[in-house]
Protein 1
Amino acid sequence: MHVIPPFEEQPLPAWKRAVLKVGSSLLADAGRGLSPRHALGLAQFVSASIGAGREVVIVSSGAVAAGRGILQRKAESGAGIAERQALAALGQAQLVGLWQRFFERPVAQVLLTHDDLRNRRRYLNARATLRELLALGAIPVVNENDTVSVDELKLGDNDNLAAIVAALVDADALFIATDIDGFYTANPRTSPENAQPINEVEALTPEFYAMAGGSGSAVGTGGMRTKLEAAARAAAAGIETFLFNGTRAATVQKLAQGVLQGTRFRAAQNRLAARKYWLRNVPLEAGRIVVDAGAAAALAEKGASLLPGGVVAAEGDFRRGDMIELAVRQDDGTTRAIARGITQYSAVDVRQIAGRHSRDIETILGYNYGDNVIHRDDLVLL
Protein backbone atom coordinates (compact mmCIF):
# COMPACT_ATOMS: atom_id res chain seq x y z
CA MET A 1 0.00 0.00 0.00
CA HIS A 2 1.42 3.35 -1.04
CA VAL A 3 1.82 5.90 1.77
CA ILE A 4 1.13 9.49 0.75
CA PRO A 5 3.34 12.06 2.53
CA PRO A 6 1.45 14.42 4.87
CA PHE A 7 1.09 18.15 4.28
CA GLU A 8 3.58 20.37 6.05
CA GLU A 9 2.51 22.68 8.84
CA GLN A 10 2.89 26.34 7.92
CA PRO A 11 2.00 29.57 9.73
CA LEU A 12 -1.11 31.42 8.62
CA PRO A 13 -0.67 35.10 7.72
CA ALA A 14 -2.45 37.64 9.90
CA TRP A 15 -6.09 38.20 8.96
CA LYS A 16 -9.00 40.21 10.32
CA ARG A 17 -11.97 39.03 8.25
CA ALA A 18 -12.46 35.68 6.54
CA VAL A 19 -14.97 33.55 4.72
CA LEU A 20 -15.21 29.90 5.74
CA LYS A 21 -16.71 27.61 3.09
CA VAL A 22 -18.07 24.30 4.35
CA GLY A 23 -19.04 21.61 1.85
CA SER A 24 -21.92 19.13 2.00
CA SER A 25 -19.53 16.23 2.54
CA LEU A 26 -18.70 17.63 5.98
CA LEU A 27 -22.31 18.08 7.06
CA ALA A 28 -24.36 15.30 5.44
CA ASP A 29 -25.00 12.08 7.34
CA ALA A 30 -25.35 9.42 4.59
CA GLY A 31 -28.94 10.21 3.69
CA ARG A 32 -30.02 10.84 7.29
CA GLY A 33 -29.89 14.61 7.11
CA LEU A 34 -27.23 16.73 8.76
CA SER A 35 -24.62 15.66 11.29
CA PRO A 36 -22.85 17.92 13.81
CA ARG A 37 -19.80 15.63 13.82
CA HIS A 38 -17.49 17.87 11.77
CA ALA A 39 -19.47 21.10 12.04
CA LEU A 40 -18.73 21.36 15.76
CA GLY A 41 -14.97 21.67 15.27
CA LEU A 42 -15.40 24.24 12.51
CA ALA A 43 -17.77 26.22 14.72
CA GLN A 44 -15.18 26.18 17.49
CA PHE A 45 -12.65 27.62 15.01
CA VAL A 46 -15.13 30.39 14.17
CA SER A 47 -15.78 31.11 17.86
CA ALA A 48 -12.05 31.20 18.65
CA SER A 49 -11.49 33.59 15.73
CA ILE A 50 -14.28 35.91 16.87
CA GLY A 51 -12.92 35.77 20.41
CA ALA A 52 -9.58 36.99 19.01
CA GLY A 53 -11.29 40.04 17.50
CA ARG A 54 -11.76 38.69 13.97
CA GLU A 55 -14.88 38.39 11.82
CA VAL A 56 -16.08 35.30 9.97
CA VAL A 57 -18.74 34.73 7.33
CA ILE A 58 -19.76 31.10 6.77
CA VAL A 59 -20.72 29.91 3.30
CA SER A 60 -22.41 26.57 3.91
CA SER A 61 -23.67 23.87 1.63
CA GLY A 62 -25.97 21.16 2.93
CA ALA A 63 -29.56 22.35 2.38
CA VAL A 64 -30.33 19.69 -0.24
CA ALA A 65 -28.77 16.98 1.95
CA ALA A 66 -30.86 18.19 4.90
CA GLY A 67 -34.00 18.04 2.79
CA ARG A 68 -33.21 14.48 1.77
CA GLY A 69 -32.87 13.59 5.43
CA ILE A 70 -36.30 15.00 6.21
CA LEU A 71 -37.86 12.86 3.48
CA GLN A 72 -35.55 9.89 4.13
CA ARG A 73 -34.28 9.90 0.54
CA LYS A 74 -30.87 8.73 -0.52
CA ALA A 75 -28.62 10.89 -2.68
CA GLU A 76 -29.11 10.09 -6.36
CA SER A 77 -27.17 11.28 -9.37
CA GLY A 78 -29.29 12.96 -12.02
CA ALA A 79 -32.02 14.17 -9.63
CA GLY A 80 -34.34 16.67 -11.33
CA ILE A 81 -33.86 20.38 -10.81
CA ALA A 82 -37.35 20.85 -9.36
CA GLU A 83 -36.75 18.00 -6.90
CA ARG A 84 -33.44 19.46 -5.76
CA GLN A 85 -35.02 22.87 -5.37
CA ALA A 86 -37.79 21.43 -3.23
CA LEU A 87 -35.27 19.53 -1.09
CA ALA A 88 -33.27 22.73 -0.62
CA ALA A 89 -36.39 24.60 0.50
CA LEU A 90 -37.14 21.85 3.02
CA GLY A 91 -33.60 21.67 4.33
CA GLN A 92 -32.64 25.33 4.55
CA ALA A 93 -34.13 25.91 8.00
CA GLN A 94 -32.41 22.82 9.36
CA LEU A 95 -29.08 23.95 7.94
CA VAL A 96 -29.28 27.31 9.71
CA GLY A 97 -30.51 25.56 12.86
CA LEU A 98 -27.47 23.29 12.79
CA TRP A 99 -25.11 26.27 12.83
CA GLN A 100 -27.13 28.21 15.41
CA ARG A 101 -26.85 25.41 17.96
CA PHE A 102 -23.07 25.94 18.15
CA PHE A 103 -23.06 29.69 18.82
CA GLU A 104 -24.33 31.88 21.63
CA ARG A 105 -24.43 34.88 19.29
CA PRO A 106 -27.17 35.07 16.60
CA VAL A 107 -26.77 33.35 13.25
CA ALA A 108 -28.24 35.14 10.23
CA GLN A 109 -29.33 33.37 7.06
CA VAL A 110 -28.35 35.11 3.81
CA LEU A 111 -29.50 33.52 0.54
CA LEU A 112 -27.79 34.72 -2.62
CA THR A 113 -27.63 33.86 -6.29
CA HIS A 114 -24.73 34.67 -8.56
CA ASP A 115 -27.08 37.10 -10.31
CA ASP A 116 -27.40 39.04 -7.05
CA LEU A 117 -23.65 39.57 -7.15
CA ARG A 118 -23.40 40.42 -10.85
CA ASN A 119 -26.00 43.18 -10.57
CA ARG A 120 -24.31 46.25 -9.11
CA ARG A 121 -27.34 47.52 -7.18
CA ARG A 122 -28.09 44.14 -5.63
CA TYR A 123 -24.35 43.71 -5.03
CA LEU A 124 -24.29 46.90 -2.96
CA ASN A 125 -27.38 45.85 -1.02
CA ALA A 126 -25.90 42.42 -0.26
CA ARG A 127 -22.60 43.94 0.86
CA ALA A 128 -24.33 46.50 3.07
CA THR A 129 -26.41 43.76 4.71
CA LEU A 130 -23.43 41.49 5.38
CA ARG A 131 -21.34 44.34 6.78
CA GLU A 132 -24.16 45.41 9.07
CA LEU A 133 -24.64 41.85 10.31
CA LEU A 134 -20.94 41.66 11.17
CA ALA A 135 -21.13 45.06 12.89
CA LEU A 136 -24.05 43.76 14.97
CA GLY A 137 -21.98 40.79 16.10
CA ALA A 138 -23.98 38.21 14.18
CA ILE A 139 -22.55 35.31 12.18
CA PRO A 140 -23.84 35.37 8.59
CA VAL A 141 -24.44 31.93 7.10
CA VAL A 142 -24.57 32.35 3.34
CA ASN A 143 -25.92 29.80 0.92
CA GLU A 144 -26.89 29.83 -2.69
CA ASN A 145 -30.62 30.42 -3.11
CA ASP A 146 -31.11 26.95 -4.54
CA THR A 147 -34.89 27.21 -4.70
CA VAL A 148 -34.74 29.79 -7.51
CA SER A 149 -31.20 29.57 -8.91
CA VAL A 150 -31.77 27.02 -11.66
CA ASP A 151 -28.56 27.43 -13.67
CA GLU A 152 -26.28 27.67 -10.66
CA LEU A 153 -28.00 24.78 -8.94
CA LYS A 154 -27.01 22.58 -11.89
CA LEU A 155 -23.41 23.41 -10.97
CA GLY A 156 -24.02 23.26 -7.24
CA ASP A 157 -20.92 25.40 -6.87
CA ASN A 158 -20.63 27.07 -3.49
CA ASP A 159 -16.83 27.20 -3.83
CA ASN A 160 -17.00 30.04 -6.35
CA LEU A 161 -19.84 31.64 -4.40
CA ALA A 162 -17.56 31.69 -1.34
CA ALA A 163 -14.84 33.45 -3.34
CA ILE A 164 -17.36 36.02 -4.56
CA VAL A 165 -18.60 36.58 -1.01
CA ALA A 166 -14.99 36.98 0.18
CA ALA A 167 -14.51 39.80 -2.31
CA LEU A 168 -17.95 41.19 -1.45
CA VAL A 169 -17.10 41.66 2.24
CA ASP A 170 -13.45 42.65 1.62
CA ALA A 171 -12.14 39.56 3.40
CA ASP A 172 -8.46 38.92 3.98
CA ALA A 173 -8.72 35.14 3.70
CA LEU A 174 -10.86 32.37 2.24
CA PHE A 175 -10.85 29.07 4.13
CA ILE A 176 -12.24 26.07 2.23
CA ALA A 177 -13.04 23.08 4.41
CA THR A 178 -13.32 19.84 2.48
CA ASP A 179 -12.93 16.10 3.05
CA ILE A 180 -9.46 15.85 1.57
CA ASP A 181 -6.19 17.02 3.15
CA GLY A 182 -5.34 19.56 0.45
CA PHE A 183 -4.35 19.84 -3.20
CA TYR A 184 -2.35 16.96 -4.67
CA THR A 185 -0.58 16.30 -7.94
CA ALA A 186 -3.18 13.53 -8.54
CA ASN A 187 -6.35 12.27 -6.93
CA PRO A 188 -5.18 10.50 -3.75
CA ARG A 189 -8.28 8.28 -3.74
CA THR A 190 -7.81 6.85 -7.22
CA SER A 191 -4.08 7.34 -7.90
CA PRO A 192 -2.29 7.33 -4.54
CA GLU A 193 1.00 6.36 -6.16
CA ASN A 194 1.00 9.62 -8.13
CA ALA A 195 -0.42 11.88 -5.42
CA GLN A 196 2.08 14.24 -3.87
CA PRO A 197 0.93 17.06 -1.56
CA ILE A 198 1.26 20.62 -2.85
CA ASN A 199 1.75 22.83 0.20
CA GLU A 200 1.76 26.16 -1.60
CA VAL A 201 0.66 27.51 -4.97
CA GLU A 202 2.10 30.83 -6.08
CA ALA A 203 -0.06 31.15 -9.23
CA LEU A 204 -2.62 28.81 -10.76
CA THR A 205 -1.54 27.67 -14.22
CA PRO A 206 -3.23 25.21 -16.65
CA GLU A 207 -1.00 22.44 -15.29
CA PHE A 208 -2.64 22.74 -11.87
CA TYR A 209 -6.13 22.53 -13.35
CA ALA A 210 -5.10 19.39 -15.21
CA MET A 211 -4.33 17.77 -11.85
CA ALA A 212 -7.83 18.46 -10.46
CA GLY A 213 -10.40 15.69 -10.33
CA GLY A 214 -14.17 15.56 -9.89
CA SER A 215 -16.47 15.41 -6.89
CA GLY A 216 -15.25 13.10 -4.17
CA SER A 217 -18.55 12.24 -2.45
CA ALA A 218 -22.15 11.33 -3.27
CA VAL A 219 -23.59 14.37 -1.50
CA GLY A 220 -21.16 17.01 -2.72
CA THR A 221 -21.39 18.44 -6.22
CA GLY A 222 -18.19 20.47 -6.31
CA GLY A 223 -14.79 18.95 -6.94
CA MET A 224 -11.18 20.06 -6.72
CA ARG A 225 -11.50 22.01 -9.95
CA THR A 226 -14.14 24.35 -8.50
CA LYS A 227 -11.90 24.89 -5.49
CA LEU A 228 -9.07 25.93 -7.81
CA GLU A 229 -11.46 28.23 -9.66
CA ALA A 230 -12.49 29.75 -6.33
CA ALA A 231 -8.86 30.21 -5.31
CA ALA A 232 -8.10 31.91 -8.63
CA ARG A 233 -11.12 34.20 -8.25
CA ALA A 234 -10.08 35.09 -4.70
CA ALA A 235 -6.46 35.67 -5.78
CA ALA A 236 -7.65 38.14 -8.42
CA ALA A 237 -9.30 40.10 -5.60
CA GLY A 238 -6.10 40.02 -3.53
CA ILE A 239 -7.39 37.32 -1.15
CA GLU A 240 -5.42 34.23 -0.15
CA THR A 241 -7.14 30.84 -0.03
CA PHE A 242 -6.43 28.03 2.44
CA LEU A 243 -7.63 24.52 1.61
CA PHE A 244 -7.75 22.00 4.47
CA ASN A 245 -9.44 18.83 5.67
CA GLY A 246 -12.41 19.77 7.85
CA THR A 247 -12.97 16.16 8.90
CA ARG A 248 -9.66 16.08 10.81
CA ALA A 249 -10.19 17.61 14.25
CA ALA A 250 -6.47 18.19 14.80
CA THR A 251 -6.17 20.10 11.51
CA VAL A 252 -9.10 22.36 12.41
CA GLN A 253 -7.71 22.95 15.91
CA LYS A 254 -4.37 24.02 14.42
CA LEU A 255 -6.14 26.66 12.33
CA ALA A 256 -7.34 28.34 15.52
CA GLN A 257 -3.69 28.37 16.62
CA GLY A 258 -2.59 30.08 13.40
CA VAL A 259 -1.22 26.96 11.70
CA LEU A 260 -2.32 25.55 8.35
CA GLN A 261 -1.88 21.90 7.40
CA GLY A 262 -3.15 21.95 3.84
CA THR A 263 -2.60 24.04 0.71
CA ARG A 264 -2.07 27.79 0.60
CA PHE A 265 -2.99 29.61 -2.60
CA ARG A 266 -1.29 32.98 -2.69
CA ALA A 267 -2.81 36.13 -4.14
CA ALA A 268 -1.07 37.80 -7.06
CA GLN A 269 -1.27 41.18 -5.36
CA ASN A 270 -2.56 42.64 -2.13
CA ARG A 271 -6.28 43.14 -1.61
CA LEU A 272 -6.19 46.93 -1.82
CA ALA A 273 -4.19 46.94 -5.06
CA ALA A 274 -6.55 44.38 -6.61
CA ARG A 275 -9.65 46.38 -5.70
CA LYS A 276 -8.19 49.65 -6.93
CA TYR A 277 -7.26 48.00 -10.23
CA TRP A 278 -10.84 46.76 -10.57
CA LEU A 279 -12.27 50.19 -9.78
CA ARG A 280 -10.03 51.81 -12.38
CA ASN A 281 -11.17 49.43 -15.10
CA VAL A 282 -14.93 49.09 -14.57
CA PRO A 283 -16.71 50.89 -17.46
CA LEU A 284 -18.01 54.34 -16.58
CA GLU A 285 -21.68 55.22 -16.87
CA ALA A 286 -22.73 58.41 -18.64
CA GLY A 287 -22.86 60.65 -15.62
CA ARG A 288 -20.74 62.36 -13.02
CA ILE A 289 -20.81 64.15 -9.70
CA VAL A 290 -19.25 67.60 -9.38
CA VAL A 291 -17.72 68.39 -5.97
CA ASP A 292 -16.38 71.55 -4.36
CA ALA A 293 -12.72 72.25 -3.67
CA GLY A 294 -12.99 71.23 -0.01
CA ALA A 295 -14.39 67.83 -0.86
CA ALA A 296 -11.76 67.34 -3.59
CA ALA A 297 -9.01 68.09 -1.08
CA ALA A 298 -10.51 65.71 1.51
CA LEU A 299 -10.67 62.92 -1.07
CA ALA A 300 -7.10 63.47 -2.27
CA GLU A 301 -5.30 64.31 0.95
CA LYS A 302 -7.26 62.62 3.74
CA GLY A 303 -8.59 59.50 2.05
CA ALA A 304 -12.12 60.57 2.90
CA SER A 305 -15.44 59.33 1.55
CA LEU A 306 -17.65 61.70 -0.45
CA LEU A 307 -20.39 63.18 1.72
CA PRO A 308 -23.45 65.01 0.35
CA GLY A 309 -22.20 68.29 1.84
CA GLY A 310 -19.33 68.38 -0.66
CA VAL A 311 -21.50 67.80 -3.72
CA VAL A 312 -22.17 70.73 -6.06
CA ALA A 313 -24.12 69.00 -8.84
CA ALA A 314 -25.01 65.69 -10.46
CA GLU A 315 -24.85 65.37 -14.23
CA GLY A 316 -26.46 62.66 -16.34
CA ASP A 317 -28.94 59.97 -15.35
CA PHE A 318 -26.90 57.43 -13.39
CA ARG A 319 -28.37 54.97 -10.92
CA ARG A 320 -27.37 53.59 -7.54
CA GLY A 321 -24.49 51.16 -8.02
CA ASP A 322 -23.15 52.77 -11.21
CA MET A 323 -19.48 53.59 -11.68
CA ILE A 324 -19.28 57.33 -12.34
CA GLU A 325 -16.72 60.09 -12.62
CA LEU A 326 -16.05 62.70 -9.95
CA ALA A 327 -14.96 66.17 -11.01
CA VAL A 328 -14.08 69.40 -9.20
CA ARG A 329 -15.31 72.83 -10.23
CA GLN A 330 -12.34 75.12 -10.91
CA ASP A 331 -12.08 78.91 -10.53
CA ASP A 332 -12.55 79.53 -14.26
CA GLY A 333 -15.84 77.61 -14.26
CA THR A 334 -14.50 74.48 -15.96
CA THR A 335 -14.40 71.05 -14.35
CA ARG A 336 -11.53 68.61 -13.94
CA ALA A 337 -11.92 64.84 -13.39
CA ILE A 338 -10.29 63.76 -10.12
CA ALA A 339 -11.68 60.31 -9.29
CA ARG A 340 -14.14 57.57 -10.15
CA GLY A 341 -16.33 55.55 -7.83
CA ILE A 342 -19.49 53.56 -7.25
CA THR A 343 -22.33 55.79 -6.17
CA GLN A 344 -24.67 54.80 -3.35
CA TYR A 345 -27.37 57.14 -4.68
CA SER A 346 -28.92 57.86 -8.07
CA ALA A 347 -28.50 61.16 -9.91
CA VAL A 348 -32.02 62.18 -8.89
CA ASP A 349 -31.22 61.49 -5.23
CA VAL A 350 -27.84 63.25 -5.36
CA ARG A 351 -29.43 66.42 -6.75
CA GLN A 352 -31.81 66.50 -3.80
CA ILE A 353 -29.20 65.94 -1.08
CA ALA A 354 -26.37 67.99 -2.65
CA GLY A 355 -24.88 70.40 -0.15
CA ARG A 356 -26.84 68.95 2.77
CA HIS A 357 -25.69 67.16 5.91
CA SER A 358 -25.69 63.36 5.98
CA ARG A 359 -28.17 63.35 8.86
CA ASP A 360 -30.73 65.03 6.57
CA ILE A 361 -30.69 62.30 3.90
CA GLU A 362 -33.60 60.27 5.26
CA THR A 363 -35.69 63.36 5.90
CA ILE A 364 -35.18 64.55 2.33
CA LEU A 365 -35.44 61.24 0.47
CA GLY A 366 -37.58 59.15 2.82
CA TYR A 367 -34.88 56.46 2.93
CA ASN A 368 -31.17 56.16 3.60
CA TYR A 369 -28.47 54.03 1.94
CA GLY A 370 -25.79 55.36 4.27
CA ASP A 371 -24.06 58.64 5.11
CA ASN A 372 -21.75 58.56 2.07
CA VAL A 373 -22.59 59.35 -1.52
CA ILE A 374 -19.49 57.33 -2.45
CA HIS A 375 -17.64 55.31 0.18
CA ARG A 376 -13.86 55.48 0.22
CA ASP A 377 -13.65 51.71 -0.41
CA ASP A 378 -15.56 52.24 -3.66
CA LEU A 379 -13.47 55.17 -4.91
CA VAL A 380 -10.15 55.50 -6.71
CA LEU A 381 -8.27 58.72 -7.44
CA LEU A 382 -7.20 59.44 -11.01
Note: The two ends are 61 Å apart (CA to CA).
Protein 2
Amino acid sequence: MQPSEKAKELFRQPTLLSSLEGLVVAESTRHGGVSPQPYASLNLGMNTSDDPANVAENRRRFFEALTIEPDRVASSHQIHGADVLLTTEPGRYDGYDALITNQPDLYLAVSTADCVPVLIYDQRHRAVAAVHAGWRGTASGIVSLTLKAMQEQFDTHPGDCYAYVGTCIDETSFDVGPDVAEQFGPNHKRIDPFSGKAFINLKSANTKQLTDFGIPAAHIAVSTFSTVLDNKDYFSHRHEKGQTGRMLAVIGLRPS
Protein backbone atom coordinates (compact mmCIF):
# COMPACT_ATOMS: atom_id res chain seq x y z
CA MET A 1 0.00 0.00 0.00
CA GLN A 2 1.37 3.39 -1.01
CA PRO A 3 1.01 6.23 1.53
CA SER A 4 -1.24 9.15 0.63
CA GLU A 5 0.27 12.49 -0.32
CA LYS A 6 -0.83 13.93 3.04
CA ALA A 7 0.74 11.02 4.92
CA LYS A 8 4.02 11.53 3.05
CA GLU A 9 4.65 14.87 4.80
CA LEU A 10 5.15 12.88 8.03
CA PHE A 11 8.23 11.01 6.78
CA ARG A 12 10.87 10.59 4.09
CA GLN A 13 12.19 7.32 2.69
CA PRO A 14 15.55 6.52 1.08
CA THR A 15 14.75 5.33 -2.44
CA LEU A 16 17.53 2.73 -2.43
CA LEU A 17 16.03 0.81 0.47
CA SER A 18 12.34 1.59 0.13
CA SER A 19 12.34 -0.03 -3.30
CA LEU A 20 13.30 -3.41 -1.78
CA GLU A 21 10.37 -5.79 -1.59
CA GLY A 22 8.70 -6.13 1.79
CA LEU A 23 10.97 -3.65 3.56
CA VAL A 24 9.58 -0.73 5.57
CA VAL A 25 12.12 2.04 6.07
CA ALA A 26 11.44 5.67 6.94
CA GLU A 27 12.46 8.61 9.06
CA SER A 28 9.97 11.13 10.33
CA THR A 29 9.96 14.85 9.65
CA ARG A 30 8.63 17.46 12.06
CA HIS A 31 5.44 17.98 10.01
CA GLY A 32 1.89 16.73 10.34
CA GLY A 33 1.54 16.49 14.12
CA VAL A 34 -0.41 18.24 16.86
CA SER A 35 2.31 19.46 19.24
CA PRO A 36 2.64 23.22 19.86
CA GLN A 37 5.92 25.16 19.95
CA PRO A 38 8.66 24.39 20.75
CA TYR A 39 7.74 20.82 19.77
CA ALA A 40 5.88 21.75 16.60
CA SER A 41 4.55 19.66 15.28
CA LEU A 42 5.25 15.91 14.88
CA ASN A 43 7.17 15.35 18.11
CA LEU A 44 7.55 11.58 18.53
CA GLY A 45 9.81 11.76 21.59
CA MET A 46 8.58 10.03 24.73
CA ASN A 47 11.21 11.71 26.93
CA THR A 48 10.40 15.34 26.22
CA SER A 49 8.30 17.81 28.23
CA ASP A 50 5.62 17.82 25.56
CA ASP A 51 2.12 16.73 26.61
CA PRO A 52 2.14 12.90 26.46
CA ALA A 53 -1.28 13.02 24.77
CA ASN A 54 0.25 15.02 21.91
CA VAL A 55 3.10 12.56 21.54
CA ALA A 56 0.68 9.63 21.56
CA GLU A 57 -1.41 11.21 18.80
CA ASN A 58 1.71 12.05 16.78
CA ARG A 59 2.97 8.49 17.04
CA ARG A 60 -0.44 7.15 16.05
CA ARG A 61 -0.40 9.33 12.92
CA PHE A 62 3.17 8.38 12.02
CA PHE A 63 2.69 4.64 12.36
CA GLU A 64 -0.69 4.76 10.63
CA ALA A 65 0.92 6.56 7.69
CA LEU A 66 3.39 3.67 7.42
CA THR A 67 0.57 1.11 7.94
CA ILE A 68 2.35 -0.21 11.04
CA GLU A 69 0.54 -1.28 14.18
CA PRO A 70 2.09 0.60 17.15
CA ASP A 71 2.09 -2.58 19.23
CA ARG A 72 4.49 -4.16 16.69
CA VAL A 73 7.27 -1.61 17.35
CA ALA A 74 10.44 -2.24 19.38
CA SER A 75 12.47 0.67 20.73
CA SER A 76 14.69 1.48 23.69
CA HIS A 77 15.45 4.26 26.11
CA GLN A 78 18.78 5.28 24.55
CA ILE A 79 21.79 6.17 26.68
CA HIS A 80 24.42 7.16 24.07
CA GLY A 81 26.15 3.84 24.64
CA ALA A 82 27.17 1.03 22.31
CA ASP A 83 25.08 -1.93 23.47
CA VAL A 84 23.17 -3.95 20.88
CA LEU A 85 19.95 -5.81 21.66
CA LEU A 86 18.70 -8.86 19.75
CA THR A 87 14.93 -8.62 20.05
CA THR A 88 12.14 -10.92 18.94
CA GLU A 89 9.31 -9.05 20.64
CA PRO A 90 7.91 -5.53 20.41
CA GLY A 91 8.12 -3.26 23.41
CA ARG A 92 10.09 -0.51 25.08
CA TYR A 93 13.51 -1.63 26.30
CA ASP A 94 16.09 0.26 28.34
CA GLY A 95 19.78 0.95 27.87
CA TYR A 96 20.33 -0.02 24.22
CA ASP A 97 21.30 2.21 21.31
CA ALA A 98 21.00 -0.47 18.62
CA LEU A 99 18.37 -3.13 17.98
CA ILE A 100 18.51 -6.12 15.63
CA THR A 101 15.93 -8.72 14.64
CA ASN A 102 15.02 -11.24 11.96
CA GLN A 103 11.35 -11.36 12.92
CA PRO A 104 8.85 -10.18 10.30
CA ASP A 105 6.18 -7.71 11.36
CA LEU A 106 8.50 -6.33 14.04
CA TYR A 107 9.57 -2.75 13.42
CA LEU A 108 12.69 -1.32 15.06
CA ALA A 109 12.75 2.39 15.92
CA VAL A 110 15.41 4.80 17.15
CA SER A 111 14.85 8.38 18.29
CA THR A 112 17.02 11.29 17.13
CA ALA A 113 17.30 15.09 17.09
CA ASP A 114 20.89 15.59 15.82
CA CYS A 115 22.38 12.10 16.30
CA VAL A 116 22.61 9.75 13.33
CA PRO A 117 20.03 7.05 12.68
CA VAL A 118 21.59 4.15 10.78
CA LEU A 119 19.24 1.53 9.32
CA ILE A 120 20.60 -1.78 7.99
CA TYR A 121 18.97 -4.59 5.99
CA ASP A 122 20.44 -8.04 5.36
CA GLN A 123 18.46 -9.05 2.29
CA ARG A 124 19.53 -12.70 2.18
CA HIS A 125 18.69 -13.51 5.80
CA ARG A 126 15.88 -10.95 6.05
CA ALA A 127 17.27 -9.32 9.16
CA VAL A 128 17.27 -5.63 10.09
CA ALA A 129 18.98 -3.24 12.47
CA ALA A 130 18.25 0.25 13.76
CA VAL A 131 21.14 2.18 15.28
CA HIS A 132 21.25 5.45 17.23
CA ALA A 133 24.74 6.91 16.75
CA GLY A 134 25.59 10.12 18.56
CA TRP A 135 29.20 11.20 18.77
CA ARG A 136 29.82 8.84 21.67
CA GLY A 137 28.27 5.86 19.91
CA THR A 138 30.07 6.74 16.69
CA ALA A 139 33.43 6.97 18.46
CA SER A 140 32.68 3.63 20.18
CA GLY A 141 32.00 1.97 16.81
CA ILE A 142 28.35 1.18 17.45
CA VAL A 143 27.64 0.53 13.75
CA SER A 144 30.56 -1.91 13.57
CA LEU A 145 29.36 -3.62 16.75
CA THR A 146 25.84 -3.90 15.33
CA LEU A 147 27.11 -5.51 12.14
CA LYS A 148 29.22 -7.92 14.17
CA ALA A 149 26.13 -8.87 16.18
CA MET A 150 24.18 -9.45 12.96
CA GLN A 151 26.99 -11.59 11.65
CA GLU A 152 27.00 -13.69 14.82
CA GLN A 153 23.21 -14.01 15.08
CA PHE A 154 22.14 -14.23 11.44
CA ASP A 155 25.32 -15.11 9.50
CA THR A 156 25.12 -11.71 7.83
CA HIS A 157 27.53 -11.10 4.94
CA PRO A 158 28.49 -7.59 3.74
CA GLY A 159 27.45 -8.08 0.12
CA ASP A 160 23.89 -8.90 1.18
CA CYS A 161 23.45 -5.68 3.18
CA TYR A 162 21.88 -2.36 2.38
CA ALA A 163 22.13 0.62 4.69
CA TYR A 164 20.85 4.12 5.22
CA VAL A 165 22.77 6.82 7.09
CA GLY A 166 20.02 9.20 8.08
CA THR A 167 19.47 12.86 8.77
CA CYS A 168 21.59 14.37 11.54
CA ILE A 169 23.58 17.46 12.42
CA ASP A 170 25.86 18.41 9.53
CA GLU A 171 29.61 18.85 9.72
CA THR A 172 29.49 22.63 9.32
CA SER A 173 27.21 22.89 12.39
CA PHE A 174 28.90 20.36 14.69
CA ASP A 175 31.84 22.07 16.33
CA VAL A 176 33.26 20.19 19.31
CA GLY A 177 35.86 20.57 22.02
CA PRO A 178 39.32 18.98 21.87
CA ASP A 179 38.28 16.07 24.12
CA VAL A 180 35.67 15.00 21.55
CA ALA A 181 37.75 15.90 18.49
CA GLU A 182 40.63 13.64 19.52
CA GLN A 183 38.33 10.61 19.28
CA PHE A 184 37.86 11.07 15.52
CA GLY A 185 40.34 10.47 12.72
CA PRO A 186 41.39 13.15 10.23
CA ASN A 187 39.01 11.91 7.52
CA HIS A 188 36.02 12.78 9.72
CA LYS A 189 37.35 15.93 11.35
CA ARG A 190 38.03 19.44 10.07
CA ILE A 191 40.00 22.08 11.96
CA ASP A 192 39.04 25.61 11.03
CA PRO A 193 42.32 27.43 10.27
CA PHE A 194 41.03 30.75 11.58
CA SER A 195 39.16 29.82 14.76
CA GLY A 196 40.99 26.58 15.55
CA LYS A 197 37.62 24.90 16.18
CA ALA A 198 37.14 21.24 15.30
CA PHE A 199 34.11 20.11 13.29
CA ILE A 200 33.01 16.46 13.12
CA ASN A 201 31.32 14.71 10.20
CA LEU A 202 29.12 12.07 11.80
CA LYS A 203 27.71 10.89 8.48
CA SER A 204 31.10 10.06 7.02
CA ALA A 205 32.32 8.44 10.25
CA ASN A 206 29.35 6.07 10.33
CA THR A 207 29.47 5.41 6.60
CA LYS A 208 33.11 4.36 7.04
CA GLN A 209 32.05 1.73 9.59
CA LEU A 210 29.63 0.31 7.02
CA THR A 211 32.22 0.17 4.24
CA ASP A 212 34.89 -1.19 6.60
CA PHE A 213 32.58 -4.14 7.22
CA GLY A 214 32.52 -4.62 3.46
CA ILE A 215 29.11 -3.25 2.49
CA PRO A 216 29.41 -1.98 -1.10
CA ALA A 217 29.20 1.79 -1.44
CA ALA A 218 26.43 1.28 -4.02
CA HIS A 219 24.35 -0.36 -1.26
CA ILE A 220 24.56 2.66 1.05
CA ALA A 221 22.28 5.69 0.95
CA VAL A 222 23.19 8.83 2.88
CA SER A 223 20.69 11.55 3.74
CA THR A 224 21.33 14.88 2.05
CA PHE A 225 19.50 16.73 4.82
CA SER A 226 20.73 18.38 8.01
CA THR A 227 18.83 18.81 11.26
CA VAL A 228 20.34 22.30 11.56
CA LEU A 229 20.37 23.59 7.97
CA ASP A 230 16.96 22.02 7.31
CA ASN A 231 15.55 22.84 10.73
CA LYS A 232 12.21 23.75 9.17
CA ASP A 233 11.77 20.03 8.42
CA TYR A 234 13.67 18.34 11.28
CA PHE A 235 14.26 18.79 15.00
CA SER A 236 17.71 19.85 16.19
CA HIS A 237 18.59 19.60 19.88
CA ARG A 238 21.64 21.83 19.45
CA HIS A 239 20.15 24.47 17.18
CA GLU A 240 17.00 24.75 19.30
CA LYS A 241 18.96 24.70 22.57
CA GLY A 242 17.36 21.51 23.87
CA GLN A 243 13.78 22.77 23.61
CA THR A 244 12.57 20.65 20.72
CA GLY A 245 10.98 17.39 19.65
CA ARG A 246 12.37 14.09 18.41
CA MET A 247 12.17 12.17 15.14
CA LEU A 248 11.93 8.42 14.70
CA ALA A 249 13.75 6.27 12.16
CA VAL A 250 12.07 2.90 11.57
CA ILE A 251 12.93 -0.31 9.76
CA GLY A 252 11.18 -3.67 9.56
CA LEU A 253 9.79 -6.37 7.28
CA ARG A 254 6.19 -6.85 6.29
CA PRO A 255 4.78 -10.26 7.14
CA SER A 256 4.69 -12.65 4.19
Note: The longest strand covers residues 116-122.
